[in-house]
Amino acid sequence: MTAPPAIDAASRSWRRALADLQAGLRARELWALLAWQDIKQRYRRSSLGPLWITVGMAVTALALGVVNSALFGSSISTLLPSITTGLILWNFMNGCIVEGSETFIANEGMIKQLPAPVSVYALRTVWRQALYLAHNLVVYVVVLAVFFGKLSEPYRLVDKAGALLHPGLGWGMLLAVPALMLVLLNGAWVVLLFGVVSTRFRDIPPVIQSFITMLFYATPIMWSMDQVRVMNQDSHEGFGSLAVNLLQLNPVYHFVEIVRAPLVGQQQSWTHWLVVGVVTVVGWALALLVLRNYRARVAYWV
Questions:
Q1: DSSP the chain
Q2: Taking the CA of residue 188 as centre, how many other CA atoms within 13 Å lie in the half-sphere pointing to its CB?
Q3: Closest Cα to residue 266, out of 143, 160, 175?
Q4: Model pTM?
Q5: Residue (of 268, 95, 100) closest to 179 by Cα position
Q6: Residue-wise pLDDT tens for the chain (302 aa)?
């Protein structure tokens, strides 16, 4: 097997890396059409078509809500909306990480035949996951319509400073819009970074598959942070405090809460915005660095 030709220094420039991103964004008709075709192909000859995405999410959220409510004695009216929004956001992030790590490998044929910017294939994956997210948001709208009365009422649970942790639904729900845009923005650098690295090192995708399961159970999606907060109120140095501190180290927790909190009437902490902002800057810096140095090698690695 012959080694790939050396890449000249001119191709490894920030200007060309940014030009690749700009060209990819301008080709939105291409990656948007390809992403929609991916969904149509997946549900080809199906009676409900892409609506199966919504049905699958609804069944999963309802089953987890009923089971967890019975196990932990929590109210279904507060637990189900939290689980639903958590699952919707997790599915998007999980898709960007898992499918993003194979985005260039899966597009091998097109990369070798179509002279398109590398970012087009990353945007194709992100847009496909965004369409899944849009379908799943229908489930949240239904849950919100059913439990709106309960979610609008303030909860009595307060933190140590006396702040109301659950003020109820209000105009604060609008904060979910910029938060969701921020999550989508992070999905793009995740696909770019993991996609290029995984194309070079093919052992990365299986490692991600193993790690993602552990990350799911370490993120408050199927269980509520209220349980940990209650333990934290009863102990200054016990398990509750330790669990809360450990959860703060999980960046996925902050990405989930920055969107979920306003959607279910919970208090949104500035810490979530700070962590997400730092991760966004660092993540895009790494993705641009990888795109600058290895963009031209992707076609030889696939």
A1: -PPPPPPPGGGSSHHHHHHHHHHHHHTHHHHHHHHHHHHHHHTTT-SSTTHHHHHHHHHHHHHHHHHHHHHH---HHHHHHHHHHHHHHHHHHHHHHHTGGGHHHHTHHHHHH----HHHHHHHHHHHHHHHHHHHHHHHHHHHHHHHHHHHSPP--B-TT--BS---SSGGGGGHHHHHHHHHHHHHHHHHHHHHHHHH-TTHHHHHHHHHHHHHHTSTTSS-HHHHHHHHHH-SSSHHHHHHHHHTT-HHHHHHHHHHHHHTTPPPPHHHHHHHHHHHHHHHHHHHHHHHHHGGGHHHH-
A2: 20
A3: 175
A4: 0.86
A5: 268
A6: 445 555 555 567 788 888 999 999 999 999 999 999 988 887 777 666 667 778 888 888 888 888 887 777 777 888 888 899 999 999 999 999 999 999 999 888 888 888 888 999 999 999 999 999 998 999 999 998 888 777 777 765 544 444 445 666 778 888 999 999 999 999 999 999 999 999 999 999 999 988 998 899 888 888 777 666 665 655 555 445 666 677 778 899 999 999 998 998 887 888 899 999 999 999 999 999 999 999 888 988 98
What residue has token string 């279910």?
264
Token pair of 293 as six digits: 């140095």
Amino acid (1-letter code) at residue 152 = S
